[in-house]
Amino acid sequence: xxxxxxxxxxxxxxxxxxxxxxxxxxxxxxxxxxxxxxxxxxxxxxxxxxxxxxxxxxxxxxxxxxxxxxxxxxxxxxxxxxxxxxxxxxxxxxxxxxxxxxxxxxxxxxxxxxxxxxxxxxxxxxxxxxxxxxxxxxxxxxxxxxxxxxxxxxxxxxxxxxx
Length: 163
Fold this sequence. Notes:
- It is a single chain.
- By secondary structure, the chain is mainly beta.
- The protein is built from two helices and eight strands.
- It has helices at residues 144-149, 155-162; strands spanning 19-29, 32-42, 48-56, 92-93, 99-104, 113-117, 121-126, 138-139.
- The strands form two sheets. Strands 1, 2, 3, 4 and 5 form a five-stranded antiparallel beta sheet that branches. Strands 7-6-8 form a three-stranded antiparallel beta sheet, with no helix packed on it.
- Strand 2 (32-42) and strand 3 form a beta hairpin.
C-alpha cells in the first residue's frame, strides 16, 4: 500500500475515473438532533478531501400537521410544587453512527471499500481500484459479511485465528 503511483479506477457502468466520498453524521443536543453531510473527491493517495458541507434538512414539515387544542381544557397549576430541575444537554456526536459512502462521481454507483487502519481510520481503498489488496485493508463495517464470504480477512485477523 506504499505505492506512490496513483490508483486506477474505471467505473463498470459509465467508464468514469473519479470517486466521491461522502460522510454523514448526526449531532445530538438533548432531544433535538441535526444531520450533516460533507463530500469531496478521493485523491490519488487515497486521502479524501471534503469540498462541500451542508446540514441535511428534513423534507417533512412536521409543524404543519399539529392540531391546535382548546386551551379551556387546561387548568392553571396552583400546586405548591417547585419547578423541575431540567437537565442541560451538551451537543454530542456518536462516531460509530457516522456513515461513509464511496461512489463513482460519474453515475453515483456505490463502491465497496475498506480503510487502511482499523476503526475506520486512515485512507480509503475502494475494492475496484487497481491497488486494492484485501489482506491489507479493514472493511467498512457494512461490508464485513461480504468480505468474509470472499475470504478477505485482514492479515492481523489471520494471525489471531492461527493461535
